Every structure is written in C-alpha cells, then in structure tokens.
Amino acid sequence: MNYQSAIVFGFNEYAKQIALQIAPEYPSFSVFVMNESEQIAAKAAGFEAALFDLGEDWKLIEEKFDPNSLIIFCALDKDAENVFLTISLRSIFENLPIIALASDHESAAKMKSAGANKVMATQQITANIITEMLEKPTVTEVLHDILYEQSFLKIAQITVPENCFLVGKHLHEIDWGEEFDILVLAIVDHQLSATFSFTSKGHHHHIDPDDVLVVVGYEDSIEALSEAMGVVK
Amino acid sequence: MISRWIVGIAFFLHASPNYRYFKKFIYNLLENSNYPYKKFFDYTMMILIVISVYILVHHVKYEVKPDWLFFNNYVISVIFLIEYLLRLWVYSDNSKAIIEQYEHDLFLQRPFKILTVLHHIILTKTKFIFSPSAIIDLLAIMPFFHEMRLLRVFILFRVFKLFRYTKSLQQFVSILSSKKFEFLTLGMFAGVIITVSSVLIYVMEANNPASPINTLFEAVYWSVVTIFTVGYGDFVPVTSEGRTVAMVIIVAGIAVISFATSIVVSAFTEKLDEIKEDKLIDDVSKIDQFYLICGYTPLAAQVAHRFLKTGKQVVILESNHKKVTEAQKEGFLALTHNPASLHSYHTIRIDFETQVIAALLLEESDVLNVYTALTIREISKSVPLLSILLHHENRRKLALAGINEIVYTQELIGLMSKEVSGRPVAFEVIHALRSENSGVFIEEIVLDTLMANQFFETTRLTMFHKRLIVLGVYKQSSKSFFFNPSNSLLVEEGDVAIVVGTRSLIDEFKSLMRRKKRR
Prior knowledge:
The structure holds two protein chains of two kinds. By secondary structure, chain A is an alpha/beta fold. Helices cover 39% and strands 22% of the residues of chain A. Chain A has helices at residues 13-22, 36-44, 59-64, 79-92, 105-114, 122-135, 137-148, 176-180, 219-229; strands at residues 5-9, 28-33, 49-51, 70-74, 98-102, 118-121, 153-159, 182-188, 196-198, 212-218. A six-stranded parallel sheet of chain A has the order 3-2-1-4-5-6, sandwiched between helices. In chain A, strands 7-10-8-9 form a four-stranded antiparallel sheet. In chain A, helix 4 runs parallel beside helix 5 (105-114). The radius of gyration of chain A is 20 Å and the shape is globular. Chain A starts with a strand and ends with a helix. Chain B is an alpha/beta fold. Chain B contains 21 helices and ten strands. In chain B, the strands form two sheets. A six-stranded parallel sheet of chain B has the order 3-2-1-4-5-6, sandwiched between helices. In chain B, strand 1, helix 13 and strand 2 form a beta-alpha-beta unit. In chain B, helix 2 (17-31) packs across helix 4 (66-91) and helix 3 runs antiparallel to helix 8. The longest helix of chain B has 47 residues, at 240-286. Chain B starts with a helix and ends with a helix. Classes of the chains: A alpha/beta, B alpha/beta. At the A-B interface, helix 1, helix 6, helix 7, strand 7 and strand 8 of A face helix 13, strand 4, helix 18, helix 19 and strand 7 of B.
C-alpha cells in the first residue's frame, strides 16, 4: 500500500526522529501536537504543527486528508495518552493504519487492544539492539546496512502477482540463491494465515497469488526477480 | 658492627624480588580472602583439624594405631606450628621497619639505634601473639606434648581454629562482638543475680540437714542451673525461705534469657543487610565473566533479562536501595553501590580486565552516564563501554568520555518507523529475528580453521541446503560483507558467517563443520 499522507502525533525526541525520517517519504506530511511548547519545538525543526486535544472529533483529518491513503504515527509522551489517542482515532477511522509507540510490553498490549496496527515497544527494541550489539556485532552491522544505510544490499517484500511463473510452485523447488542471487527469509502465505512464516522453519509453502515474499538481495537482483515475476511498479 | 650487618640484611631482603614474592605469596595464602588459592589451603587445614579431633574422640575409648597417633601428635602439630610461625612472620615487615628507622636516624644525623627498632619489632609481634586467634593457634599446637595427658584437651582448640578458615563463623563472631557492651551488661546482671542468690540459698539451706545444698559451690551450681531456666532438679531448696529465693531467681532467670535472646536477635537483624551485601560481593567475585549494568531502569531490566536468557551473567550496580530490591526480586544480582563512584568498585573488587565483558550505562540521564563512564575509565582504559543517548546534542560528549558504543534509541525508532510504514512485513521479519521469540534465529559464527575449510561443503549437505539460510560471510581481512557467497570465496579463520535458522539446525551446522574435519 502506498500512502500519500502521514501524520505524526506529538513532538518529543521520538516523534521528532520519526518526523525527520518519514517526512521526505510522503507528499503530504503533518505534525499534530498537544501544547504550544511542542509546537515551537516542531517549528524549530522545520515542521508546521497543528494543535489538538484528546477530545477531538477528528473532522480536521477527514477534511484535510484522504483516510484511505493516510498513515498515522502516535508518539505522545505518555503511554496512557497514546492509548487514548489510538482508540479515539480507531473509533472514527476503522481502516486507518495506526503505528503507535509504547514504552513497555504492558502498554504495547493495551495499544494493540485500542486498535493500533503496529506497536513499537521502545524498551524492548532498545534492549534487543543493545544485546545484539554486544553479542552479535557483525549481525548488527549487516542488518543495519541492509535496513537503513544506502548499501546495495536490500531487504524487500514482493507480492506475488496473479500470473507469476512462481504460482503453484513450492518454495523449496526453487534455488533462490543460485538462480536469482537472492535469499527468501519469510513468506506471508495468504492461504494458510495472514502472518508471515520463516522459510527456515519449513518449505511446505505453496506459492499463491498475493503471497508476500520477504527477500534479501542486491538491488539489481531484486529488481530482476520482480520483473521476472511480472510485478507492476 | 652488628647494626650495620642488620641494616645490610634488611636492605637486601627489601630489595630482593624473590623474598618479596614469597612473603606476598604466603601472606595471600594465609590472610588474603580474595586470593583464589587460599581456599585450598583452608580446606586442607580444616581436614587436618577434623582428623585430629576425630582421633582424640576415638582415642577416649578405643585404641588408635600408633601411625595415626604419630600423625596426630607430630605431623599435624608441626604443620600447625609452621603455620603459626608463618603467620607471625607475615604479620609485619621487619626489614621495612629497620630501614625506616635507619633512614630516620640518618636524616636526623644521629647514630642508628638498633634497640629502638628491635623494641618496635617485638612490640608489633607481641600484638600478634596476644591476639585471640593467635592464642587459639598456639594452644592448638599444644598436643605436640602428647605425653602430658592433661594437655591433650588442648586439641579441642583446634576446633576453634576452624574460625580462621570459615568466613561464616568469623561473621558470627563479628556480629556478636558488635554487641560487646550489651553482653557485658547482661554478664554483670547475671553475675550479680547469681552471686546474691548463691549466697542467699547457701545461708537459707546449708544448715538444714534435709537440704541437698550443703556447700557454696552447690549453691552457685543451683543458682546457675535455675537462673538459666534449665532446672535439673538434682539440687532443690527444701526450706520455705530457700523456696522464696528460688521463686525470685526463676523470675529473674526469664529476664536474663529474654535479654540474651534479644541481644543476639538484634545483632543479627542489624547486620543482616551487611551480611547479605558481603555474600553478594563474594558471589560477584566468583563469576568469571559478566556484563556490568550501571543503573537499574526498566530498560536495564529488559537488557538483563535478555542476557540471562542467553546464559550470560549480569551484575547490576544501583545507588537507590529500593530499585536494588526490585532488581533482586526480579532475580538479578544487584548491589546497592553508586556506579559513578570509584569507592564502589574498590569495595566490590570487580576486575574490569578479566571479569567485565562490557559495562552498560543505562541511566536515564546523559549527565550521569558520562560521569559513570569517566569513573570506569579511571579504573580501566580497555573495558568496552556502551551507553544510551538521551539527547542527540550530547553524542560527542559521550564519545569524549570514552564510550565505545552509543545507542540513540530515538533515531533507531525513527528509522524503524520508515521501515514499518514502507515494508511492514520485512520489518516484522527482522524484528522477529532480533527478538528471538519466533524460534528462528540470526546468528554469527566465528569460523576457526577447521570450520572455514569445511564451510561450503557443510552448507551443501541435504539437511542444511535450503533450510539454513547463509546470509553471507564477513571477511575480516577486507572488512567487507559477502552476501550469498559462492564456492569461489576464500573463507578463512576469523571470518564470520551469518546464518538464519532454527536453534537446533544452527547448532548442528556448527558441530558438523568441526566434526567432519576430524574424521
């Protein structure tokens, strides 16, 4: 799904970094804050921020954005406020993708219940990164390059089109590394479940249209595979 | 002439590395509880004590083989004698004392007074000789004169020697000695009561032919047995006056017992935290390698949990006692010490060079983390330091404080947000791999020569082919990552393979890479 607009709620250190990273990715981008000091901070960072309160009826969003191509990031200071914001947005916009920040597991579970599509538990993520940096420094470096740096190696998700030559085949029938110079890490098999499964856990997946392959490879190889699969850009 | 000779020897010994090394070694073995080999010496001495006491007890009713008697009377005694002399030797440094006195006299331009220094040496050594533990040591050597039957009872002093070798017994004594004043008061109280009651009961009972209490000693014995609420009943007062005294003594006895119990209990309660802390410090010194977490925060708890899950040891330092209690409740090894204070590290006796894998600064303040980093850097220049960064503008300050790895979570979350909105499934996959909760792991395998030689051959085995994802090889020589490597890549010792698979598959892969070569 290609979103045209994005909104970040809040302007603390987390929200600021989110805004800095995602603003260039969307034609339309806005920041909503709860107080004037955050508004000033946002302005200093180069963002125009609108004020809101948790009792909003969100008419403003309906008027300014197309909810079908909008993505929301809830990054308010307090977990309780974030939960309330999430539930209030979900009550109006049933299908709106909401990504929320939570400090810990407990709040993350509440955000999920409130209707967030994806919750990033900051403590857990930081703990994972810290332990990985110390225990698996090479893995950290390689994953960081693949995910965030401008390296030629990329991770991508490719949705299998209707008339793709892969349809009907099993994952294990294809030597991905040999034939395409890519590695398939996981697959979202829509026939089996909506969540992904790692290819390392089993190869009994039958490739169907609309399945999503999560692949790692050089940009060119991924491009070549997408073309061969008949993916329309 | 003699003085010059003595000073010459003192200088020679003081400058001799072998002599100093040997003395230091003996000191460590006898007195330094942190010395790793001391425990072997202590265990040996404890075994000797047990053997010696067993022989004594056994010898009361049974014959003991002459060899064992010889071993007990001479060998063990000689060992104890040597130990006693060594303790006396390491107690003070005579050569240092002589040199100090010599230099002092030289500075004041007066002749070296050998008698002054000898007097000082004798005084110091006498201090040792009259210390309670040295007296016990000396008495424990006494059975050496086994021919004197009465002196054989001194072998029991060997049991007291156990105090030297058992830390818990030493603690027990030190706890009780912290209540010296209370015990003295109790002793005086009990003494007065016993004296008064003994005299009273003697006066009331001794002249009565029906009374079993006829002597003052019997009166004292009766008083002691009564006041400490034992009451054997072998001596009982028969006169009304005597019985009246008995009733008063019985009531006083309850007071004495309660007083004694309360002193012991309060001594232990007061020292409980100290004892626990000592035990924890001991535990820390016994851990070979661990991660040191400075500051107990919710993030620190998560990090510690993850390390423990992977079998790594973690020690937490936190100045807030409440937080330490929380950490201990979570099952972590946490100590109430300020991680930003040098004194803490000296007390805990952490060896940064050998014990600490890395120190993690996880306080929710850049200021505190910088301060702690500088404290640790004072002790160790090489220990890896990792810190979280709260405010971007402080990054350089953290780097200047000697922190090797800086984790700026906010930036990571920003980068992740971009991923999660653009490639949500890919993000989920990487996140699942990192969190290690999905049963599939991403691992790095540092290849030794055997593994490097067998690397490609093993990846082609049916069980791994297409099931174990070899993401790539990180070449140490060129510091570059080779994705999806082919056979043409030269894999060498020290290179790192990154693989994705289930735990059992990865373990099997590692073991087969090694095993195949050995065949």
